Amino acid sequence: MEIVQIATYIFGLVFAIGFMGKAIQYARMPIHLRWELYPLAGERNRPWGGSYLEKAEWWTTPPERKSLAGELAFMGQEVFLFREYFQRNRRLWTIVYPFHIAIFLFILFFMLLIVGALVLSAEIAVAGEGAGAGGEFLYYATLVAGVGAFTLGTTACTGLFLHKLTDPTMRTYARRIELFNILLVLAIFLTGLCSWALADATFTDAREFVRSLFSYKEMARIEAVSIAHILLLGAFLAYLPFTNMMHFFAKFFTYHKVRWDDAPHLRGSYVERRIEPLLEQTVTWSAPHIEGIKQWRDIASQTNEPPRKE
Amino acid sequence: MSRTKAIRPSDISKNPLDPLAIVTGQDLMPLPYPCDTLNHPGTGPLSDRQKETYECALDGVVAVAIPKPRSPMEEEALVQAFLRGLRKLFSKEDNWTFLQPLKLSMDYCVKCQTCSEACPVFEASGRQEIYRPTFRSEVFRRIYRRYIEGESRLISRLKGDGIDLNWATIARLCESAYRCTLCRRCAQACPLGIDNGLIAHELRKLFSQEMGLAPKELHTKGTVQQLTVGSSTGMKPKAFLNLIDFMEEDIAEKTGRKIKIPVDKKGADILLVHNAGEFVSWPENPAAFAVIFEEAGLSWTLSSDLCGYDAVNYGVWYDDVQLARIAYRHAKIAKELGVRRIVVGECGHAHKALLVTADRVLHGELNIPRESCLPLLEKIVSSGVLKLDPSRNAFPVTLHDPCNIVRLEGIVEPQRRILRRIAPDFREMNPHGVYNYCCGGGGGFAIMSGMNISDWKLGISGRMKVKQILDTFKDCIGPQTRKYVCAPCSNCKGQLRDLISYYELEPRANIHYTGLVDLIVNAMADTPMRYLEPEEAVKDTVPEEAVASRTKGQPTGL
Hints:
The complex is a heterodimer.
Chain A: H1 3-27, H2 68-81, H3 83-88, H4 90-121, H5 132-166, H6 168-173, H7 176-199, H8 204-215, H9 224-239, H10 247-259, H11 270-275, H12 297-301
Helix pairs in contact in A: 1-9, 4-5, 4-8, 5-7, 7-9
Chain B: H1 48-53, H2 72-89, H3 99-107, H4 120-124, H5 133-147, H6 153-159, H7 167-176, H8 185-189, H9 196-211, H10 219-228, H11 237-255, E1 270-273, H12 276-281, H13 284-295, E2 300-301, H14 315-318, H15 320-337, E3 341-344, H16 348-357, E4 370-372, H17 373-383, E5 397-399, H18 414-422, E6 426-427, H19 453-461, H20 463-472, E7 483-486, H21 490-502, H22 505-509, E8 511-514, H23 516-522, H24 534-537, H25 544-548
Parallel strand pairs in B: 1-2, 1-3, 3-4, 5-6, 5-7, 7-8
Helix pairs in contact in B: 2-9, 3-9, 5-9, 10-15, 11-13, 13-23, 17-18
């Protein structure tokens, strides 16, 4: 097994651990106080942005079910069309939308390589001619997705980098690390483009490399530019969970767990069960008006007393 | 001339004596006719003594009144206190209340600046960099990465995070947390769901809960006074009961009804809680509630207990402990009275505190059902129990959406359905509903007036609302037509009152403000007098062309 393969396994493992670690970290955070923002995408009957609180004596009727279809429709437009950017920040949309489309194409390209590798392992040919309909489709789809991703990605990344440098507001807030991150992604797309143009016009080597990862066998010889692309991509994946480029992941929580939370605290509900132990937690804030409170529960017992010190 | 220059987040730690920016009149967003000729100076200067005593190096404005440290040692002690608070803000024990949303907003902003144009403060100030929603957040993020994420100074510098954590940084950051109305329009605009309003809120908490720094109107004269005296207005139970007597007389005079307002009635169905500012400044509002509730035959009561006659909860803006204390107190009063539900009157932040933010701290027997007055009022109005004559409200009326009730709580249509029934010339602002602009008094500003913060809240944070109001009434802007802005929120009404005076909207455009129940009672056909400033309201007429040109019953939206 060659060092490129070993490095790829390690990078993949670091990515998986990092990603899971972040997911667990956020999922295990305590339930928070409510902090919704309306409109809610899942609100079936109130397209104007209303909530269950528009009903008189809302607690006397069963809780309303949220519309999963509404939430998926909203998220679908967000993920695939970047609707909010389109509506509110059109100039930036013209850059970040193609940039993200390039990333989606790259993910598609990678998945097609995996499928291709599995097909090859089953001793079915993947080629432009004489490989059967499935093999030919895989061949051309991989080609289109890969070339599309690399070309669009290189262009959009360059545009984003220049925008960060030339737009006065962007420049004011751009940190060096963020510029580095864009350059890193640019390098991945650019090496991919070079690899295709100079060394692997049919992505056969790429497919064989992915196959070697599954078979744990020695890989076929690949060109230096392709190795550079693989290592850059692997390093990027290992680094990704520890950066703000994980915002796609954060969006699940910011929308579903904060903006669209909308879960009233009913007696006997799961909210009550999750809040109860939190009231036993220690309070160490030390401003004068908090003196005397050791646990959150103590606040309830102080309702008849003035604060001890002002 | 504006002293605004290209300001970077790292500038916050530099030149501790010089304000980062001073907003002048020329910087401000232009207003339409008839306020286009007004010549406001921007934020007024502080006296020399105030400058010597308080930190004012953010923008020459004082909201928190942070005393200047007297020695480098004192400065260092304050920096250390800030760092202690910072660690607590990111701990599961001390800040379970908001840890998850805060962490998300700290870690994943990509600084696309989409939020900037959503912020009325940033826009109205002439796009001052220090008021950009991401400015404060970016400063705080850089400190967070260094001291909570544990980045070394070298890595921090290499990443481009350089901010020196000195007293100037902290003092400016503290004041900066009070240059946001917490309207959360920026969060609504964020494609990623990042919440710069929450970051301002959490900073306020850090300063209050660890360092004891908060504007006196919110803390000493706000929550502390409410918990000890009974009301943030300073009103004691006896004074409250006297006001009730006065209200009963006023109701009899204005409506011909002899009503005994129920107070501390055990076993009533409803405990109605009002912002005590209503009793003091606008007693006609709680009186209108009394008229409507009695006419509808509801079983209800007010409370004369400490805090029971004041629904406000300023803790919602700056301190979770104070928030919980007051919410517990409200719930306990309801429990002792044995009511079935608490109904919150026309007070936006009290809605937010009692119905939403404190929802998860009220447990067991204290988890008494709570609801807004708006759906209940809609139910009463639509039931036909009140004899309503919309022609009595025959003047142009627009609705201001209190952020706390609408964007942050999703109560959007009940108040509109009422207005469509009782006000023939009801017209929407643009934008409205959940996309509304804050009145500029949110986050506590409506009740803050010390030193020169009034210049800021009226000249800058309330400016967008004035523009909206003028645009809404542009077809009848002349002083010959009396016009009303309906604001079902005490603090919004307070801010509108001050805006109307500051921008001379009454003499220039005959614009007034009112609550929703006031308009309902004004429309009651069987009252001998108009409820809403009767001697003038009688003269009102709606320009027919204005009514005809407007589509009625439009759904709420952008």
